[in-house]
Automatic annotation (TrEMBL):
Keywords, comma-separated and alphabetical: Hydrolase, Membrane, Metal-binding, Protease, Transmembrane, Transmembrane helix, Zinc
SUPFAM superfamilies per the UniProt record, alphabetical: Bacterial exopeptidase dimerisation domain (SSF55031), Zn-dependent exopeptidases (SSF53187)
Active site (catalytic residues): D207, E274
UniProt family annotation: Belongs to the peptidase M20A family.
Annotated residues for binding of Zn(2+) 2: H205, D240, D303
PROSITE patterns: ARGE_DAPE_CPG2_1 (PS00758)
Source organism of this protein record: Ceriporiopsis subvermispora (strain B)
Taxonomic lineage: Eukaryota, Fungi, Dikarya, Basidiomycota, Agaricomycotina
UniProt-annotated binding residues for Zn(2+) 1: D240, E275, H587
Protein name listed in UniProt: Peptidase M20 dimerisation domain-containing protein
Length: 615
């Protein structure tokens, strides 16, 4: 796992972090030129919403007329918090607790301006809406029980979708090198002019969550109609994730049409089963990409993820790309006992014993923690530093918790008391989601099992979860005189006359460790992403806020990026959208994308490509 960023770096710290983005021939000269310049680190925030859409946080210092994205872009204003502050800072001031970069506009200002004008035109918007509508009309549903590609005809619809993309983006298909991986996953290589620069990987997924047939009549417009009603584009996938996929392709097509050739190469990769196992799409793509570009072969990755919001005051926009993801483990608890007629029962049946074990697990949840080097603590610093409406008691605790262990414990308790979602943010969660046992009312159950879903904290591990379950359940197994196997290990418990309990990985999966934490220094690629987000928001028509804060956060769910850890240390999960940009959320009835928000996604991807392309 990558080392977490420092909260308070020394004033004389230096950084050459951006040099990996420069040609090899320039690294030494740039390093010497900037040696001695102060390093400012971006403090990290943390997700307040579930799954992939945790939108958040704080207000940022932004700068007019900022030039090019290399080291000079990442300067910060004079720090205002040499001592802990208990008042919110205005977004025009910077802070060592939550440092910021300014808006980063592409050096190709004329091209950027021309494209903004194009994207504002009625003709362009009509075409863009039609492209997303057409994509939504192809029901690329992803099922949990899909067999591998080639063994299940339900994959065939992805061929129709691939054909639609080729017909819709002729310039892109004639300019980029296009490859199909495992038949339907797509890879597009846009060759840059400078091979010494590592490419950037932009990802999305083709598949959507199936529509429950019983809910079809609950939709305002049919789920695969793609209706544009003048405000919304309706249908499954309009938000998750075809809006990102189509806006990426529109951005590239538009840049090609304007004659733009990037300095660095770009790779677009689209999975086909992100909503289920990810094995047929991102699993195959990860192998292909590492074989083609090598380990650590990309400068950065941008995938779907968090967005922006006005969480702690309407005058400040808080944008929150995910820079890490929680781990994942489904663990099965199975109790096996002798059968028999229920007229002569033992004191405890297999179901009763399993119930005691479930009760014990729920009585002993994982203890939440708030380490200072972790994302939740750094996120809290951003909330407290810039949130105008952040609770004053928590703001004061956050300031003192930087140095006081007692205040840190009070802050942890205060956060959980303020909102129970913080318990999920600050620790490993466990939820007993599946249970079964018994086949007939007059027969003693010979088997009973439950599956416990875990989302593993950033600072924890799969092994920690296994050990926790063993420590909680071993005394109960001993009490019931059960033998016990824990994840392939025989553990001494009772003599076993009453039966046996097995702890195992459900579904044959050994779980997923928490992701590496993406570096968030201002001179890291994070600074480029943050500056691009600010430039897109502050230059949007109708922008009327006091400022924008960009702060990293922890995703509670997982994306296709969980397969891509070998490709780069710099993985970002961000969808340029606000909660109001979707009509009714995701994975439910009446999924719809606000048409204007779709245009803003196109603007964001265009600026991001231009900024990361520049030398």
């Amino acid at each position: 796992m990558s080392e977490a960023p420092l909260l308070f770096p020394p004033d004389d710290s230096n950084s050459d972090d951006l040099l990996f983005l420069l040609p090899k021939s320039r690294k030494d000269s740039v390093a010497n030129q900037h040696r001695g310049s102060r390093l400012r680190w971006v403090a990290v925030i943390f997700s307040l919403s579930l799954a992939l859409l945790a939108y958040h946080i704080l207000a940022a210092a932004w700068f007019e007329g900022l030039p090019h994205w290399h080291i000079s872009c990442c300067r910060s204003t004079t720090a205002s918090d040499r001592r802990p502050s208990t008042r919110p800072l205005p977004p025009s001031e910077n802070s060592t607790a939550c440092p910021q970069v300014g808006p980063l506009f592409p050096k190709h200002r004329g091209l950027d301006s021309d494209l903004d004008d194009l994207y504002a035109s009625g003709a362009f918007r009509s075409t863009a809406y039609d492209l997303l509508s057409g994509a939504v009309q192809i029901p690329t549903e992803s099922y949990d029980d899909l067999l591998p590609v080639g063994e299940d005809t339900r994959w065939n619809i992805f061929g129709v979708f691939n054909d639609y993309l080729e017909q819709s983006f002729p310039l892109l298909y004639s300019t980029l090198n296009v490859a199909k991986v495992n038949t339907y996953a797509m890879v597009y290589h846009w060759q840059g002019s400078d091979d010494s620069l590592l490419p950037v990987l932009l990802t999305a997924h083709e598949d959507v969550v199936p529509v429950e047939p019983a809910t079809v009549d609950d939709w305002i417009h049919p789920p695969y109609s793609g209706v544009y009603d003048g405000t919304w584009i309706w249908g499954r996938g309009s938000c998750d994730d075809k809006s990102s996929l189509i806006s990426l392709l529109i951005s590239v097509e538009s840049l090609i049409e304007k004659g733009f050739t990037p300095s660095r190469s770009f790779v677009l990769a689209f999975g086909i089963d992100e909503e289920s196992a990810g094995t047929q799409g991102a699993g195959h793509l990860a192998v292909y990409l590492e074989q083609t570009y090598g380990k650590d072969g990309f400068a950065m990755i941008l995938d779907e993820g968090g967005g922006y919001n006005t969480l702690y005051g309407g005058d400040v926009i808080f944008a929150a790309p995910d820079t890490s993801e929680k781990g994942y483990l489904d663990a099965r608890v199975e109790v096996s006992t002798p059968g028999g007629h229920s007229s002569v029962p033992p004191p405890h049946t297999a179901i009763g014993m399993l119930s005691s074990m479930i009760t014990a697990l729920e009585a002993h949840p994982h203890e939440p923690q708030l380490p200072r080097e972790g994302t939740p603590f750094l996120a809290t610093q951003c909330f407290a530093t810039y949130g105008p409406d952040y609770p004053e008691d928590l703001r004061q605790l956050a300031a003192h918790a930087r140095t006081s262990d007692a205040a840190l414990e009070e802050l942890k308790a205060g956060l959980i008391a303020a909102d129970t979602v913080y318990a999920a943010m600050l620790g490993t969660t466990q939820a007993v989601d599946l249970i079964k046992g018994g086949v007939k009312v007059n027969a003693l159950p010979e088997r009973a099992d439950a599956v416990v879903n875990h989302r593993i904290a950033e600072y924890s591990s799969v092994e920690d979860v296994q050990q926790h379950m063993l420590e909680v359940l071993l005394p109960i197994a001993t009490e019931f005189n059960l033998t016990l196997d824990a994840f392939g290990r025989n553990i001494s418990a009772g003599v076993g006359s009453a039966g046996h309990v097995t702890l195992s990985f459900a579904w044959g999966s050994s779980g997923l460790e928490p992701s590496p934490v993406t570096p968030t220094g201002l001179n890291d690629p994070f600074g480029i992403l943050a500056g691009t987000i600010k430039a897109t928001l502050t230059s949007a028509e109708g922008y009327d806020k006091k400022g924008v804060i960009v702060t990293p956060m922890l995703a509670l769910g997982n994306t296709d990026t969980s397969r891509y850890w070998n490709l780069t240390r710099h993985i970002f999960r961000y969808a340029h959208e606000a909660p109001g940009d979707s009509y009714n959320g995701l994975h439910t009835v009446n999924e719809a994308r606000l048409a204007e928000a779709f245009i803003q996604q196109i603007r964001f991807y265009t600026k991001f490509i231009l900024n990361t392309s520049d030398e």
